[in-house]
Design brief:
The structure is a homotetramer.
Chain A (H helix, E strand, L loop, with lengths): L7 E6 L13 H26 L3 E12 L8 E11 L3 E10 L4 E14 L4 E2 L4 H11 L6
Antiparallel strand pairs in A: 1-3, 2-5, 3-4, 4-5, 5-6
């Protein structure tokens, strides 16, 4: 899936210190990049709605990463995020990491995020306004 | 699955700096702990065999983590690793993270690791000796 | 200065992932360990006093690290912290990192920490009770 | 000292995950940024010369950071590096971190780096060619 299919896109420099003993970017860094793209998604509107809807917040339930090719310093990565599934109280976000060197997919994966009501201490349904914002970001309806 | 079912077990302190803005251990740290338990597995014999068998090394193809409960500083975690599936050229390792506070499962997940021949630049079959060592560590046969 | 001269001491495992491309523990990790020992110092009594004295908290003004010898995985480090100077509104904490392999000093350094009143948004004098607790931890008077 | 006085300048995004429990960028991250600017300095010519001059490499002897103001997500930092002192076998590099929010200095510090001959296992004098390259980058002579 090309980067253009991801409505949220970050451009991030690879730091020398992101590499491990094997001479390529350490596997934990991809997970940090996924996190950065998740937060960028919230920043595009959902985060504000979570606050205004009460004491709501996202809880990460699962993260998965498929490492497709190695990334070395120096390089710049482009991280994409897109909500692919919108359940009652959770959503599935897809992530990709493309690197400029070789113009290739370096990793792809997903996060499952639960919408949590911290006052009631339980998951809550996505409010209609939040669904509308996600579908606006995605440019169309998102399946359940 | 209790920690005792994992032949490789690490005891690691939670550092204050492992926490993020939300006041609990950041999701990337679990992935680092998984890595630590993978390396501890190699240290138990497989790593030596990889070197002696030629220019072989493990390549991480996938990592998955299910976050079950939040971990706060101060605490100590116990990370377990076990090879649950042994394919022709890859294996699936299961990881668990238990924390002492509340004596509970904090996360569980898995890694898929490919055995790679760096000279031939392609995946290779697990040598019989390596399978034997894994099954010795696991205390019995591992399914494919 | 031997580790025994440091009243706060932490034993921390070196993780494989603490290493960088050069094959030894990355320079940022020592700073994280310093932080861990600073927090352990607060945990020994000062932290409680900060809270009970109002909206007080420590602000890190400076950190310095002298790297004395390289640390490789696997190893265990012992990190020591001691308050060496107690000014009106700031203190100087000394840190050491000893590693078990070779039983040697790997790093030494210091942190300068300012006691900050978040309500008044300015540094405040150390309360007598806090000075007493520090001198109790140190086993004697601390110079200014 | 303004950013323009630093010949090596990096623009780096602040990641959400760079923040700690206190809600601002964790003190270890500045040290990572210093490292990134050091490596960027080597990349500007010194690194190549180290390799061509034999088995030479930089060893970090000391790092110091003065934290001047807090950085919060989202923001972009500009990290500058400049060699301020050039000794026989070591150099002192100055670092600054400016953040765009508030257009202010967030941190300043320095690294002391020793030029090391890995074959002879001892520090070596900076070759004339390396000094010339540093002074070319700096736009003038660098004091000892």
């Amino acid at each position: 899936m090309p980067l253009d299919d991801f409505p949220i896109r970050l451009e991030l420099p690879v730091l020398w210190g992101n590499q491990d003993l094997f001479g390529h970017v350490n596997n934990c860094i991809h997970i940090r990049w996924f996190e950065s793209s998740r937060v960028a998604y919230w920043d595009a509107g959902i985060g504000e709605l979570m606050k205004s809807a009460g004491n709501l917040g996202p809880i990460l339930a699962n993260v998965t990463c498929n490492y497709k090719s190695q990334i070395r310093y120096p390089d710049t990565v482009h991280v994409g995020a897109s909500v692919r599934k919108l359940g009652r109280t959770s959503l599935t976000m897809e992530h990709v990491v493309f690197c400029e060197n070789g113009d290739r997919l370096a990793a792809e994966g997903q996060s499952i995020v639960v919408l949590f009501d911290y006052d009631k201490q339980r998951p809550v349904r996505f409010p209609a306004e939040m669904i509308a914002t996600i579908e606006e970001i995605e440019g169309g309806p998102v399946g359940g």
